[in-house]
Design a protein that fits this description.
The chain is of the alpha+beta class. About 30% of the residues lie in helices and about 40% in strands.
Length: about 375
């Protein structure tokens, strides 16, 4: 009897254990969805209405619109420096005075030479008048039979000589006037004036230095307008045109400065496939300085009150751009093909495919598929 009870107890324990195992496996499968029905948490947003600006981002360095190096056409000792670095100057203002004592003396000598020439010319003119009267008198005498032909010929010769000497005296006066003008130009060249309105950027000489034609004396810049040269690739070059609006930012100031496309190079560099484009910025207060690092934003197109969604909502596929729209019940998504307009830094214009009441998936759009179950979260 004892040997029969023990096997019965063992069989009962095994049966109970098997039943518990089967039950636990069944409980573990309760509530588990197939892998293709995993719920994905997503964020959504409706169509927004705002102005969209398509732009081109470029970088460059600011430079003055006019940058002139001042040199002297003549050699001489610098007698006066009328301005210094940083000074505001006007067009025609004295910058540098070179010693002109010798040139002034030369001007006085040529002026005296002109006075002598003019006096000689006046004397010759009087001789011409006297010779002409004598010629007329001899003609009258010959008509009356009192004078002779030889006397008339002598009077004519004296008149011709007097007129030739008068012309020679006139030439001497003109020559003296030319020399005077030349000496006055030499005197003016020793007074170096500013060719433009601006500021003194640098100075390379002191009073007493010797000015030479091959030596830069001073540098003048006009900062009323500054510009930057940027290099644009051939794919973007075709979108630019003269007077196109632009914005220029520098690290010194938080707000952008309005600018414009001033000029476009007509050719591209064959090595880099880029063209130089000049962006001009009005600088009436002189805040922008040459040498500043500039970030340029050229406005290519602008659409006002456009329907937009964030760039993160658009998924680019071989068949074209798509977005995922949450179904009306809010438990699944559907894939929608869209046609895009211009894009800003963070948003893109939707031309069709999304209605005004649709909720478009933004965060999580690249983790879901058409018809997938989702959970919308804020």
């Amino acid at each position: 009897m004892k040997f029969i009870v023990v096997p019965c107890v063992l069989a009962s324990c095994l049966g109970i254990g098997w039943a518990v195992f089967v039950d636990s496996q069944g409980r573990g499968r309760v509530g588990v969805l197939p892998s293709d029905e995993v719920v994905q948490a997503v964020e959504t947003i409706g169509l927004q209405t705002r102005d969209v600006v398509e732009s081109l981002e470029l970088v460059g360095s600011l430079e003055a619109d006019r940058d002139v190096e001042i040199r002297s056409r003549v050699s001489g000792r610098i007698e006066e420096l009328a301005v210094d670095v940083g000074d505001r100057i006007s067009k025609g203002q004295l910058l540098i005075q070179i010693d002109d004592s010798q040139q002034r003396e030369l001007v006085r000598q040529t002026e005296a030479a002109i006075r002598v020439s003019v006096a000689e010319k006046s004397t010759q003119d009087l001789r011409v008048i006297a010779a002409r009267r004598e010629h007329e008198r001899q003609k009258n005498l010959l008509k009356k039979g009192v004078g002779t032909a030889q006397q008339l010929e002598a009077a004519e010769s004296k008149l011709s000589i007097a007129e030739a000497e008068s012309r020679l005296a006139a030439s001497k006066v003109a020559q003296a006037e030319t020399e005077l003008e030349h000496s006055r130009l030499g005197l003016a060249e020793r007074r170096i004036e500013s060719p433009l309105t601006g500021r003194v950027a640098s100075r390379a000489v002191q009073v007493g230095d010797l000015a030479k034609s091959d030596l830069g004396l001073m540098r003048i810049v006009d900062l009323s307008t500054v510009r930057t040269a940027v290099h644009v690739g051939e794919s973007d070059y075709r979108q630019l045109r003269q007077d196109q609006p632009a914005e220029v930012r520098v690290d010194t100031y938080p707000d952008p400065f309005p600018g414009r496309v001033e000029r476009l190079a007509p050719v591209l560099d064959p090595e880099t496939r880029t063209a130089v484009v000049y962006i001009a910025v009005d600088n009436p207060r002189g805040l922008l300085k040459p040498g500043m690092y500039a970030r340029v934003r050229v406005v290519l197109d602008r659409h006002e009150q456009a329907s937009v969604v964030p760039l993160t909502a658009v998924v680019v596929t071989p068949g074209g751009p798509i977005v995922f729209v949450v179904a009306e019940g809010g438990d699944s998504v559907r894939q929608v093909s869209v046609r895009l307009g211009i894009a800003d830094r963070t948003v893109v214009e939707i031309l069709n495919g999304v209605g005004p009441t649709d909720r478009v998936v933004t965060l999580g759009s690249r983790l879901i598929t058409d018809g997938q179950v989702v959970e919308v979260v804020d």
